[in-house]
Write a structure and sequence with these properties.
It comes from Suillus fuscotomentosus. Pfam families: DUF6830, Plavaka. InterPro entries: DUF6830, Plavaka. This is DUF6830 domain-containing protein. Helix 2 packs antiparallel against helix 20, helix 12 runs antiparallel to helix 15 and helix 15 runs antiparallel to helix 16. It is built from 25 helices and 31 strands. Strands 17, 18, 22, 23, 24, 25, 28, 29, 30 and 31 form a ten-stranded antiparallel sheet that branches. Strands 1, 2, 6, 7, 8, 9 and 12 form a seven-stranded mixed sheet that branches. Strands 15-16-19-20-21 form a five-stranded antiparallel sheet, with no helix packed on it. The longest helix has 24 residues. With 783 residues, it is of the alpha+beta class. It has four domains: 227 residues, no CATH class; 138 residues, no CATH class; 43 residues, no CATH class; 233 residues, no CATH class. Helices cover 33% and strands 17% of the residues. A hairpin with a 5-residue loop joins strand 15 and strand 16.
Length: 783
């Protein structure tokens, strides 16, 4: 950046050619948010900056440093076959700032953990094959078909994205971290040949393009190349291809053969012989001379398409066929939790969903089926959801890999129930088979993990670039990168500290606040903390362990807002506000146990502050150093919208270690103005109502604990009963959970999301509510 030809002018004004930070911010906003026509209209207003038109604005942007590698366009021909228009291949080298690590083993007790690629077998095998002290820079590529023109021409391309496996997976997986780079746009051309050969020639063209783009990487994989890491250390590096992320059709396009006795340019004869062997007819695959590249391993199973899309296309359809409108009614009736998608219109009418919505439906689909489908049908669906959840583990052991295989076996044992229910259908009626390619693909998941590490890190992110082709698309990409780099440069160049552009080495905290870490933001916060708010990046996870309420074992943090929702309430006023008839009795009992005194002597002096919500924050069940985003839990009093209040359920510490202890939080409060010294009262407390566990094991079909409301029966009045309640310190809570009603019959019309937690007595403890809870319950109670 400092070698740029306009750097002398930036010694005085870091934002040159713009007047200052204000004009730079305006230019950045216009380019990122408005079309060129809208920019032109804006610059015709009476007030305007020094640039008077969009062309002048774009000229200014072209004078900025940090434009990165230049895009190049290559035109070539396939031997003997013409296309409708010239073939343009756009590419650039983006192999810099590599982060380098070494293969290593991690053990949890006697079990080996497999997470990052560096803990896998392939990392050790490749390291053993290269020169002593050489460094592996594993390459990950991805592609997806993308339209690039808006109107009539209908041009489609394959954008090729690339990253390196040295970058930590949770950083690399965030789109805003820009760890993935688009390195090429490869056209999907139409050839002037018979339609039977159109796909064959298009696929050959794709392989030729990738072959050209990755030519330097293949050389480096074979003979090595010196590279410099972000710390300015020089390494002798090898670049094996360890993963190519694509959906099943693209994987089939890549996994082809390169040898045949028939002339490959004789399309008729070659394709005829290839089909006999179930091959595609591609004779020069791009990976043929890429050392260590094996499509059996680098075509890694992909979570988004192979699992979430499979669930939407198949599993959800099976459930829709058997439940009909009842499925929508049950989804609408479920208790609303903060941060969880609530399908107010049901799910059966939705034709397209995002991956996030697929995951939200997976969370509750198993208990929602209860009472309508057969137990064997539920067991089959549950086995599939088990597999989907296990496959997303960021860390695997031999046990978890075995559990994945077991889940598929259980599905296979019970899948006949889906056929018997005629849930698997097509246009002509019910089907009696499970010939689903993605279902067969799942057999490879357990085999792939020891080779490449956890699969969640190999996730496909779709990119849509709907712009005109050659000039426009390269200019847009260059502007995006230039703006991002110049923004970082100006923040650091305007810093009051000395030498702000030098790499800063700082010690990482023992705890990392969540996976939402942005490397650029962390760097700026260290060099110039006052300017980090100006940098656009994911909002960092707030660490409540620093200033919140921390449990005795320091593993859980809680937070309530500074200003309570209700202040200085008497005991009677809080009891009336929340409609808790036995609140004063529960408080008296808590006071007696913890203070050994008479609360009635001081009750008129005690005032209470109340909160309607509170946050709980946990460490990751997979990475103990990682602090997860906090979970917002509700304890709202009755209102016109929620006549029973809106109150969530939680797990609490339990003396019975073999079963979970679940309560519903009805009120969160803290006594103030205490006339006595009572530490047990001088803290945030929760009034809770209890559930009892039915049986000593989870229900076998759903795999979930079945709970029922806990009631206190009056011996003198057998017909009257009241819910069992108590007051506990908020620090006794260990996890927020979700309860799903046990729907034994068709749902009554009066049931909705505001009263479903009050009308039913029996509930399922939903272990699929989130992946962290799924793992926690499996470890603690064997669910």
């Amino acid at each position: 950046m400092q070698d740029h030809r306009l750097q002398p002018e930036r010694q005085v004004n870091p934002w040159y050619p713009f007047n200052g930070p204000g004009e730079w911010s305006l230019a950045k906003f216009l380019v990122e948010n408005l079309s060129q026509t809208q920019i032109e209209q804006f610059l015709k207003l009476e007030w305007r900056p020094q640039f008077k038109s969009k062309d002048e604005l774009f000229y200014y942007l072209e004078q900025l440093p940090g434009r990165g590698p230049k895009w190049q366009c290559t035109e070539f021909h396939l031997k003997g076959y013409e296309t409708e228009q010239p073939i343009h291949l756009i590419w650039r080298d983006v192999y810099a700032n590599h982060m380098c690590y070494d293969p290593h083993h991690i053990y949890n007790g006697q079990e080996r953990e497999i997470g990052e690629f560096w803990t896998s077998d392939d990392a050790w095998n490749i390291q053993a094959c290269i020169y002593f002290r050489a460094t592996i820079v594993p390459i990950i590529t991805a592609l997806d078909k993308t339209p690039v023109t808006r109107h009539t021409s209908g041009l489609e391309m394959h954008p090729l994205f690339m990253t390196i496996r040295n970058i930590q997976s949770d950083v690399r997986m965030k789109a805003t971290s820009h760890a993935w780079q688009c390195v090429a746009f490869m056209p999907i051309q139409k050839f002037l040949v018979n339609s039977d050969y159109q796909t064959l020639l298009q696929t050959r063209l794709w392989h030729k393009c990738v072959d050209l783009v990755c030519s330097k990487l293949k050389i480096a994989a074979r003979v090595g190349e010196f590279m410099v890491d972000p710390s300015a250390h020089r390494h002798f590096c090898f670049t094996p291809l360890i993963s190519h992320i694509a959906d099943l059709p693209e994987q089939l396009m890549i996994a082809c053969v390169s040898k045949n006795s028939v002339d490959p340019w004789d399309l008729f004869s070659f394709l005829k012989e290839a089909k006999k062997l179930h091959l595609s007819g591609i004779h020069l695959p791009f990976w043929r001379d890429w050392k260590y590249a094996n499509p059996a391993t680098f075509l890694t199973p992909e979570i988004l398409h192979a699992l979430h899309k499979f669930f939407f296309d198949h599993v959800l359809k099976w459930v829709k066929e058997t439940m009909g409108h009842e499925l929508d009614l049950r989804f609408r009736s479920q208790h609303k939790r903060v941060g969880v998608c609530h399908f107010t219109s049901g799910v059966s009418h939705v034709k397209q969903m995002t991956g996030r919505e697929h995951r939200d439906i997976q969370c509750t689909i198993v208990p929602t089926m209860w009472g309508i489908v057969t137990p064997e049908f539920i067991r089959a669906v549950r086995a599939m959801i088990d597999f989907i959840y296990l496959a997303q583990n960021p860390v695997h052991t031999d046990t978890s890999i075995k559990d994945m295989s077991t889940a598929l076996s259980v599905f296979d044992e019970h899948k006949q129930a889906i056929i018997d229910a005629e849930a698997r259908r097509w246009k002509s009626g019910a089907k009696d088979d499970f010939f689903i390619p993605k279902l067969e693909l799942m057999q490879s998941f357990a085999r792939a993990i020891p080779h490449v590490g956890s699969l969640i890190q190999y996730s496909a992110d779709k990119t849509s670039r709907q712009k005109d082709f050659v000039q426009q698309i390269t200019r847009i990409l260059e502007r995006e990168e230039t703006i991002r780099l110049f923004e970082l440069y100006t923040l650091l160049a305007s810093s009051p500290v000395n030498d702000p552009l030098l790499n800063v080495v700082f010690m990482e905290d023992d705890e990392v606040a969540g996976p939402e870490v942005d490397p650029a933001l962390a760097w700026v916060s260290c060099v110039n903390p006052d300017t980090q708010r100006c940098l656009h990046a994911p909002r960092p996870v707030r660490n409540h362990f620093l200033k919140g309420i921390v449990s005795d074992d320091a593993k859980i943090a809680f937070n309530v807002i500074i200003n309570p929702n209700r202040k200085h309430l008497t005991i009677v006023e809080l009891q009336t506000l929340y409609d808790l008839v036995d609140f004063s009795q529960a408080l008296y009992h808590y006071f007696t146990i913890n203070y050994h005194g008479d609360l009635n002597m001081h009750s008129s002096w005690i005032l209470l502050n109340a909160w309607f919500k509170f946050r709980i924050q946990l460490h990751s069940a997979f990475h103990e150093r990682t602090i997860m985003p906090s979970q917002l839990l509700q304890a709202e009093p009755p209102s016109s919208e929620f006549s029973y209040g809106r109150c969530d359920t939680v797990l609490i510490q339990n003396n019975r270690s073999n079963v979970p202890c679940v309560v519903q939080v009805r009120a969160v409060f803290q006594p103030t103005a205490l006339p006595i010294e009572a530490p047990a009262l001088d803290q945030v407390l929760a009034y809770v109502q209890h559930f009892d566990v039915i049986g000593d094991k989870p229900e076998p079909m759903t795999g979930m604990w079945r709970l029922t409301r806990s009631f206190f029966h009056n011996v003198s009045q057998p017909q009257s009963r009241k819910r069992c309640s108590s007051i506990i310190p908020i620090t006794n809570i260990t996890h927020g959970v979700e309860l799903i009603p046990v729907y034994d019959t068709l749902l009554a019309k009066e049931v909705n999301s505001s009263n479903s937690m009050e009308i039913f007595n029996d509930y399922f403890l939903n272990n699929f509510a989130d992946k962290e809870l799924y793992h926690t319950l499996a470890v603690a109670f064997g669910v």
